[in-house]
Amino acid sequence: MARRVIPRIWPGRQLFYSLKNRIILLTLGAVFVTAVLIAGSFYVRISQLARDAAVTELAGETRLLAQSFKTAFSQMKHDGQVLASTPQIPRIIRAYQGPYGRPGQVAPHDTWGPQLSSIFQSVMQRRAHYTQMRLLGADGQELVRVNRTEDGFEFVPAGALQNKSAEPYVRESIGLQPGQIYFSEVTYNREHGQVEETHTPTIRVVIPIFSDTGPLSALLVINANYAHLLQQQFDTIAPDKQTFLVNNLGDYVQSTAETGMQPFEMRGNYSAPPPAIVTKVQAIEENDTLLVGEDQIAYFVRLNLDASDPRSYLGIIVQMSKDEFRAPAQQTLMLSLLLGIFFLAVSLVISFHLARRFMRPLLEMTQKIEAAKGHTVPNNLPIDRHDEIGALARAFKARAHALLDSEAQARAILENMFDGLVTLDRNGVIQNCNASCARIFGYPEHELLGKGIHCLFPDFAQQGVALQASLNKTQRITARHKDGRDVTVEFSVGCVDLGRRSLYSCIMRDVSEQHRMRIALETLEERWALALDAAQIGVFDVDLQTQKTIVSDIWCQILGLPADAEVDAQEEWEKRIHPDDRDLVLAANQACFEGRAQSAVTEHRLRHNDGRWIWLRTFGRVTKWGENSAPLRFVGVQMDISGLKMAEAALKASEERLRMAIDNAPIAMALLDLEGNWIKVNEAICLLLGYDQNELLRLNSKDVTVQKSVENNVSQMQRLVQGEIDTYEEEKCYLRKDGSSVWGRVSVSVARDTEGQPAYFIKQILDISQQRETERLQSEFISTVNHELRTPLTSIQGSLAILQAKLAEKIDDKEMRLLANSHESCQRLSRLVNDILDVQQIRQGKIEYNFAAIDVCQLVEDVVESHRPMTDKFGVEIETVLPNKALPLWVDPDRLTQAVINVVSNAAKFSERGDKIILSVSERANNSVRIAVKDFGPGISEAFRSRLFSQFAQADGSSKRNTEGSGLGLNITKSLVEEMGGQIDYETEEGKGTTFFFDFPIFTLERKSA
Q1: Which strands sit side by side in the sheet containing 252-256, from one edge to the other?
Q2: Which domain holds residue 274?
Q3: 737 lies in the same domain as 800
């Protein structure tokens, strides 16, 4: 029989395995740790107390210095305010601005100047650091100045006073408001634009002085020697630690107990690189803070000199080395270590004896447990003992009995838990899973056993690495269902160390539905936020119990506040609401709170951050009610409707101006709807037609218009409505109430709505009945002229032509020229009579137009060929520029030919011999055709352009040629072109020529039918 070999244990390990020895070692360890902790805690506590005492001391000294410097600067401010109220200053200002001088010149101050100088000197005697006191006008001119000198004080005479308007502190002070005071930056004092040789660092306090009517009238300036000011405070406090004073510009001075205050160092003129602490505090934003370095601690206090300029400050730094406050803690630590060694030796002896006694019963119970067979629980355990050994025996027996119950319960819990649970080995192979896991992924439980975790989580390329990286983390991850669809689960991994191997436990919860809902909610919230932002709608939420209001960033932006501003929204609303609107808003809100209204909708004014009033439309509703129908929460939105209010006001003013313009117009005016019904009429049109306003408003415009006049204006009305023309004029015959008729020249335009659609017509009627009577008489006269003058002219013209032909070789050149001149004059007179008849026919609408579709290019070529003798007569050449395709027009070809000939003739008359006339046809971008005639003559003078298309209008062309003509050609041409649906216009430049052009729409079947 083989002998059992018991492995030999190394004595040191055997010593450690013994519970008795562990108790001894534990006791010694506890004593040692206790001693160390006590010593350490004493050391830390004393170090902390020493540090706190040092910090308190530093803070006290720093704040004392800060208070001292604050008092000094407040003293400067108080001196300036007291001096600004002296009665001599207003008198000097009035003298400067009144009858003694004008702004920019020094006024006599022999009386009040010395008085103010005496006051200045008395103040400067008490303040040794004051170097100058000055009174400046609003334009920067010195009015009174007192300087400190080595011998005393100097009252500067008027002739030596300077203008300081270019100095930065004067420019900064011009914009001060009443009650504000300005402290300048520290600079070297400048006189006459140059730095003084003494290089005195100077700070200035400026007090604005305002006139009774409001504007700034003067500036009171006190100059102080900055270094002297600081030295006085150091002398008063006498700090015993290293102290630094630094301002926002980086100027600094330091003081120690040994050396006192050292020379003042100004940025840009340092004698040596500044200490690191000076540079460090430039980036600190706190006003009162502790600064801890490697070897030193310091306390920093920021003193704001000017409440209106937070950037301007004076920083006070007091520092000390860490060795100064650590010495008591070092001594306490050494004493604690010695006491710990003593207690450690005593504990070793006591613990050895007690451990042997206490361990004997435990060893006996261990032997009994080891003697028990299988998994049975030994019955002879010392459970009757009343000490810890008995408690241990009872606990062991109870635990043994509960172990099987616990295993059964654990299995039941795992199988019935809602979350899925799998157990994996270190390679990610599934060892066990519960029913919930199988349900989540659609697998039977036995099918998952032995598979890798990647079948559930395909993204786990390296399963062991992925599991290790996921330990003690809860994360959302996409898993794969058995049917191939994705499942979103919350996944957490734990690791159980079993000694020789480790197992991973993975708990999973299906959150696919929650994931989808969260994405949908985030999308909805994003859309809602974008909608509110795009619509510039502010949101507010009021807790009616605490009166705390939460507002959105847009709400702050509407009021001109920064989006991240920390404001009390309720307080802001209270102080910004317009007094006239406050009761209205509160009443609407109260009605909503009491349930009398479902919501509170108001329009009111709030003061914008820039001072202007803006209009807001508010919609609020109670969203939460408490007991007894008490409102708890009030939520709503606000939007800026200032632009809408301005538009409404502008529209109201425009309507009022239109109403007054119509009512007070000296000529007849009316507004008509698109059907011709009167909307508004003025008194003048009522007098013209013989109706009162109520009678006329019940009628249609056709009811008071002769039928022929109604038919004539249909096409013009259509063109006006379609936007082809902006306005048109015509002459109409109206029927008065008494049956008589009256002629009027009617000007019609159309008003359109915001979408460009016609809304109503605006009609103005000028009574031309007397003019029509005159035209009738003129027509009778022209008819007489036509009958009595045209026939003899034709006979005379024919006779002269016969005489020229028969006497060409029988009379001399002089007589022939007389005949030619007579024949030409007769032709000119005949053309004049024809033009007059054409004008009369156009005016009476008797000209008939025979419209047809023509090729405008062919018509132009025919005109050039048939009228070349006319251009040869004037010695000019006509050049045509035509496109390579036909351009159809719907016109009367004869009337268009007449219009082109008139313009070509006019161009030839005003051209030099040898010049060229360009006749061109081109297609325009707006689907129209342009016929243009360009000459290179003298151009049209500015004075004549307004009468260019008038009857009998002729430009003075004597400087070029004695031109002939009736002055009716362009007038006739304009009428012909416009009657055929075209437009005529011109471009001219004096000395370089003129271009007349006609624009006609290109002919299409649609245009013909229209």
Answers
A1: 260-261, 252-256, 242-247, 313-321, 296-304, 288-292
A2: 236-322
A3: no
Q: Residue 595: which region, alpha, beta or left (left: phi > 0; alpha: psi -120 to 50)?
A: left
Residues 596 and 671 in one domain: no
User: 548: helix, coil or strand?
Assistant: strand
Q: Return the higher-pLDDT residue of 804 and 626.
A: 626
567 vs 954: CA distance, rounded Å: 76
Do 539 and 593 belong to one domain? yes
- Same domain as 714, residue 596: no
Same domain (yes/no): 676, 783: no
The better pLDDT of the pair 495, 833 is held by 495
Q: How far apart are CA 717 and CA 312, in angstroms?
A: 72
SS3 assignment, position 7: coil
Q: Report d(CA 453, CA 899) in Å as an integer.
A: 96
Q: Are 284 and 266 in contact (CB under 8 A)?
A: no
Residue 143 has which token pair? Answer: 């009015």
Nearest to 724 by CA among 974, 1004, 976, 983: 983
**Given this model, what pLDDT does residue 108 score?**
47
Instruction: Summarize the confidence of residues 807-828 as an average pLDDT.
Output: 69
Residue 225, exposed/middle/buried by CB under 10 A (0-12, 13-18, 19+)?
Answer: buried
Show which of 604, 620, 640 is a domain's final residue: 640
What does the buried/exposed string (b/e) look like for 6-42 if buried means 16 or more CB atoms within 10 Å of the residue's CB? eeeeeeeeeeeeeebeebbbebbeebeeebeeebeee
Query: 309-356 pLDDT, tens per residue?
Result: 667 788 888 888 777 777 766 677 677 777 777 777 777 777 777 777
Amino acid type, 947: R
Please check whether residue 485 lies inside any domain of the structure: yes
Do 856 and 997 belong together in one domain?
Answer: yes
Whole-number Cα distances in Å, 736 to 742, 762, 773, 835: 7, 20, 17, 36
Q: Could you give the angle at which helices 893-909 and 856-866 cross, rounded to 10 degrees? A: 50
Rg (CA), the chain: 54
Q: Are 210 and 216 in contact (CB under 8 A)?
A: yes
The token pair at 303 is: 């003193």
Q: Which two tokens stand for residue 154?
A: 């100097």
Q: What is the largest CA-CA distance in the chain?
A: 181
Give tens-digit pLDDT for 16-50: 556 667 777 777 777 777 777 777 777 777 777 77
Alpha carbon distance 731, 746 (integer Å): 6
State whether residue 987 is helix, strand or coil. strand
Structure tokens at 899: 């219009």
52 vs 749, which has greater pLDDT?
749
The larger pLDDT score, comparing residue 56 to residue 533, is at: 56
Domain count, the chain: 7
Whether the model pTM is above 0.70: no
- Domain match, 864 and 983 both: yes
My answer on whether 667 and 736 are in the same domain is: yes
Rounded Cα distance, 939 and 907, in Å: 10
Least confident of 434-448, 645-659, 773-787: 773-787
